[in-house]
Amino acid sequence: MISGLLVAEKDMQVLKDIVPAAFNNINTKFIVLDKGRSSSSADTQQQKTCLALVADETASVHFQMWADECDQFEPGDIITLSNGIFSYANIAPHRNILVLRAGRRGRAEKVGEFTMSFVETPNLSEIHWVPDPSNPKVYVQDRVISPYSRIFPPAH
């Protein structure tokens, strides 16, 4: 929800169009493909976190879940994210990885299950991003680190 209103389908971004940023402005919809175990760490002040692989029809990305989200969302769930953020985070045991998350101002909400087309590549979390030489506040893709998720490798 944004200011009490649902984000219209036409106002949602596809995953391939998101870029790392320091502000909450991502409105998107995706399906949860895989989910890691929950963990707590001193970095998160003992708050539970978990990492998931999510995707839409254009790309995949690692999605960080906090507290109740870890128990609320499962593989196959279709989620809308309002006011999300795509930035670097430390999630035990992984350090300084690029993740999509709701953050403090955002909201993730289950809107369906199992009925969404998706692709697993490219994985936006597996791309090395650099500041744009013409505008250092904007990040651009530099190179692909891995074509697929190294945290959630393909089964085959």
Automatic annotation (TrEMBL):
Keywords: DNA-binding. GO terms for molecular function: DNA binding. GO terms for biological process: double-strand break repair via homologous recombination; mitotic G2/M transition checkpoint; response to ionizing radiation. It comes from Cuscuta australis. Coiled coil: none annotated. This is OB domain-containing protein. GO terms for cellular component: chromosome; SOSS complex. It comes from the Eukaryota. InterPro entries: NA-bd_OB-fold, SOSS-B. Transmembrane segments: none annotated.
